[in-house]
Amino acid sequence: MGKIMIIGCGGVGSVAVHKCCQNSDVFSEVVIASRTVSKCDALKAKLEGKTKTKIKTAQVDADDTAVLTELIRQEKPDVVLNLALPYQDLLIMECCLAAGVHYIDTANYEPEDTAKFEYKWQWEYRERFEKAGLTALLGSGFDPGVTGVFSAYALKHYFDEINYIDILDCNAGDNGYPFATNFNPEINIREVSANGSYWEDGHWVETKPMEIKRTYDFPEIGPRDMYLLHHEELESLAINIPGIKRIRFFMTFGESYLTHLKCLENVGMTSIEPVTYNGQQIVPLQFLKTLLPDPASLGPRTKGKTNIGCIFRGKKDGKEKNLYIYNVCDHQECYKEVESQAVAYTTGVPAMIGAMLVMNGTWRRPGVFNVEEFDPDPFMDALNKWGLPWKVCEDPELVE
Ligand code: NDP
């Protein structure tokens, strides 16, 4: 039994709050703290009376570390789950250190003025968390998150050595809009319009955005076009999976999404460089975000499934072995359960599970860690229990 503070009450935060409230034997109290407190209050009103978990809300701007530290000190949660935006990661880690509380997030730090994300800034906190006797668990969403847990599980139970990993993220959901993003539009567009890259033979190979395209026949979905992207778990898995020779990440995109993105890029609407308009400085991508549908509003309209998983190639008892571990999630089933679409669901559930394992001590170790550095078994069991059951295929189609 313990208390969690969840910072951020958007698409992912809302799912995590729902799941903590379903898991009230572990989470007896939840504090929802976010910039717009009315969203926290609305969520509290929706859930109160249907859960044993005690829910409290608070207004906080995480950019103000003094105020956030004070709030954490007052509330004394056992863990803080950061579901605000990647820009806030380092600030919230600082507040957790100052208040002496464990930290969990789902996305690595990205400076607001440069579209570049990497773990180095957060890994630099290792010694400070170690000295404070606190755990920081990084990237406990689906990808990163479950993909790292799948990798640790495959290594523990199926392989002596994993040499190749292909992470495949397929969203075959249709929300009826010609162009909408399934999570925060600013973060999503920064990610997909950046150069791609993959890890091979000890170094990064850079590609142009969307340069590498493959078609894959996804179980329970069918054939979809997918494109190679840089993705944050490549960085930690390249270090934490011994014997790895190559690791790549592919995401599916539909024709309409790509055509709109290209056009928006061509006219400069995805730029993060401020421009002056009528004497006022605006960032084109932030302006675009105000025009696009709020991802949290896509739930009722999204139909179809997601399939996210990892294909492993390596060796067991001297023989070559292939394995595919994946989860299929249905957008409408998610909406029925927590009033969110599957992209928020597949992130919010593992965020709750990571927070639970840190809170109950199963995954507690002083320092800063990525998910694949812990024993995957309790996380894999919890995925089956809390709504993201996974499957293992020993004879998968491979990606050339
Ligand atoms: P949303 O934009 O829907 O929600 C973000 C929330 O954080 C909003 O409630 C927002 O408040 C709040 N917030 C933003 N800035 C601050 C601040 N300075 N102080 C306090 N609260 C703040 O985003 P998502 O829910 O889609 O994404 C949340 C996180 O999950 C992101 O970091 C994203 O990168 C990550 N993610 C990870 C995935 C994974 O698989 N690992 C997949 C998808 C997302 P307001 O309501 O005022 O805007």
Secondary structure layout:
Layout: E1 2-7, H1 11-22, E2 27-34, H2 37-47, E3 54-59, H3 65-75, E4 79-82, H4 89-99, E5 102-105, H5 120-123, H6 126-132, E6 135-138, H7 146-157, E7 161-171, H8 185-192, E8 196-200, E9 203-207, E10 213-218, E11 222-228, H9 232-240, E12 246-252, H10 255-266, E13 275-277, E14 280-282, H11 284-291, E15 305-316, E16 319-330, H12 331-338, H13 342-359, E17 367-370, H14 377-385, E18 390-393
How many distinct beta strands? 18
Structural class: alpha/beta
Q: From the alpha carbons, calculate the radius of gyration and give it in angstroms.
A: 20 Å
The CATH homologous superfamily of the largest domain corresponds to: Dihydrodipicolinate Reductase, domain 2
Per CATH, the architecture of the largest domain is 2-Layer Sandwich
- The 3D shape can be described as globular
Mean pLDDT: 96
Q: What's the main sheet like?
A: 9 strands, mixed
Strand content: 25-35%
Number of domains: 2
In the CATH hierarchy, what is the class of the largest domain?
Alpha Beta
User: Into which percent range does the helicity of residues fall?
Assistant: 25-40%
The molecules bound to the chains, other than polymers, are: NADPH dihydro-nicotinamide-adenine-dinucleotide phosphate
Helix run count: 14
Low-confidence stretches: none
Task: Classify the fold: give the CATH topology of the largest domain.
Answer: Dihydrodipicolinate Reductase, domain 2
First-last Cα distance? 48 Å
